[in-house]
């Protein structure tokens, strides 16, 4: 496991302990109450937040990531495509399993601003968005576009983080947990592809863009 994956795993485990022991309850409750009060007082931004909730549903986010995987696969970068696909699959499976295991209630479903249901920890929206952003930046996007992709990804994650708390779908710690779990999954899966000494095309289809030519392989 890479240092990044291990660091995220330790942080996620520590946060899970804090949540289950109630150590985050006061801060979570204060931030959630303030956000939901603001949502009640400002219907315009709340309608926008509900739109954000709809378009960032995990199923749509993962489908967008899948489109990127298909594009990279067709370009012959199949190690990258397989790693990206595995990261998405692990994240998609982890979300419902952990929600059921922790059984944490959502903060403000009675406010009527969200269509979310089921467990709250970790946030599935945050996990899906962070997984796809990290996969795109590390595995799918060409190097010359990575800075732009990272900037757009950080902006999208900030919007999702605010949205999940604003509509009362999640506690702030749920969102942080989703981001950390995405870091665990993507860092662990991407490491074999990105390890030092491996070129962009190592293990990809011969003759594809970015794959090593015959002289490089021989």
Automatic annotation (TrEMBL):
- Give the keywords, sorted: Membrane, Signal, Transmembrane, Transmembrane helix
Q: Check the UniProt entry and state the signal peptide residues, or none.
A: 1-25
Question: Which InterPro entries does UniProt cross-reference here?
Answer: PAP2/HPO, PAP2/HPO_sf
From the UniProt entry, list the residue stretches annotated as the region Disordered: 196-218
- Could you tell me which residue ranges the Phosphatidic acid phosphatase type 2/haloperoxidase domain spans? 80-190
Whether Transmembrane helix counts among this entry's keywords is: yes
Annotated organism of origin: Kineococcus radiotolerans (strain ATCC BAA-149 / DSM 14245 / SRS30216)
SUPFAM superfamilies for this protein: Acid phosphatase/Vanadium-dependent haloperoxidase
**Record-annotated membrane-spanning stretches:** 54-73, 85-102, 122-141, 148-169, 175-194
Keyword Cytoplasm (UniProt): no
- Protein name, as recorded: Phosphoesterase PA-phosphatase related
> Sorted alphabetically, which SMART domains does this protein's record hold?
acidPPc
